[in-house]
Records
---
Amino acid sequence: MSALPSTPELSANVVSIDEYVAELRTFPAEAFSQVPRICDFQRRLLVRPDTLKPYLLWDAQHYTRNLIDQTPLYELRV
């Protein structure tokens, strides 16, 4: 994985996947019908690649989608 740029404004927005999920879970249900609001969240926070390691599983025989988090409102996969 490549390193993330280290500009001051970008580093302030780089979080672990756990922090990302915790903030995503604070959104009320109606936010998930407001695409621009969720897109803004996704642009504002970047996930540190090293925190995704537990979810980066590969199976050469099958297509994989690895679940990070799931609620009645969304599924977050890598």
Note: The mean pLDDT is 86.
---
Amino acid sequence: MSITHRAEIFRGRRVKLYVEEHLLPNGNKALREIIRFPNSVVILPLITFDKIVLLYQYRPAIRRWIYELPAGIIEEGEDPAETASRELIEETGYKAGILKQVFTMYLAPGYSTEYMYAFIAYDLKEVGAKPEPYEVIKRRIINIDNALAMIINHEIVDAKTIALILYYAFNRNNIISTLRK
């Protein structure tokens, strides 16, 4: 309900780490480490209604390659749709003719403030990828059924990617009819 004490432990370029004492709704106090992190976006790029763009990206934090959808941090003053459009081009080389926000979510509310906007991109035009120097990305075009199998087989282990692919799979008919209008 309220913060009774806060101490900043670390301030990085984007991440801030605090130790906070919270007065909870039940009257108890809880000491928590909280990461203050900017909001972000994730994008499902549809080549066709059956084929998606998936990234195979090296992630130093976990020291491995993983499959992910394109995503990125919302810069200060930037609209989430602007971020989604920018990140889609940077990471995949595609520009979306149609970009539709479909849901929002917290990624790890137990310790982080990051709030993510999920988009579907359609009517893609290839314009050339512009990855950041620190991004190591390989682009893959995959059938949506293969992506679902990759989730079941634990080949896709990234939470935001799983959430948006499953959202699309469960709402596919409605999304297709909306995008065709």
Note: Residues 2-36 form one domain.
